[in-house]
TrEMBL record:
PANTHER family referenced in this protein's UniProt entry, alphabetically: ADENOSYLCOBINAMIDE-PHOSPHATE GUANYLYLTRANSFERASE, MOLYBDENUM COFACTOR GUANYLYLTRANSFERASE
Transmembrane segments annotated in the record for this chain: none
Keyword annotations of the record: Transferase
Name of the protein this chain belongs to: MobA-like NTP transferase domain-containing protein
Domain of life: Archaea
Amino acid sequence: MDALVLCGGRGTRLDTAVEKPLFRVGGVPMVDRVVAALAESGVEEVYAATSPNAPATSAHLDVPAIETPGDGYVADLDAALSDDRLSTPALTVAADLPLLDGEILDRVLAAHDGGSMSVLTPAARKRDLGVSDDTTFERDGREVAPTGVNVVDETGEDAWLTDDVRVAVNVNTLADARVAEQFL
């Protein structure tokens, strides 16, 4: 399975001069941590979805880039998925997950049983960790939050729920970055 790192957003909530994917957590740019985790996993090829919003990130990356318009997560994902180089199903990973490693990504791949699959975490887990939980919704009677890790395909809509800190901590704010650094 191919993998796509989404790293073309504006990152306005992080409130820093550096582009969000290049923001350092534990001294290493978050996007480098994500690419390294993918390299440790069972994915076949890694691509980066870049945009005009993050030119320094595009220049920094050592993986093939798929240029997207920078119009938001869904629009950029759709643009990247239309690129002939990327096959589906594809593992998609946000660049703001600095705790990822190959083992948790391989667990996601093993949980995938065809079609699309969202990786979710209990919203209470994010609150317990002290990280932002701006987007939550109900699924099967439980409040959950997206993690930024998904398997995208043309059919299906499955979910995998985990409270694993490696996917529960997205860095959207400076406070989130401080929490992430505690787990490195």
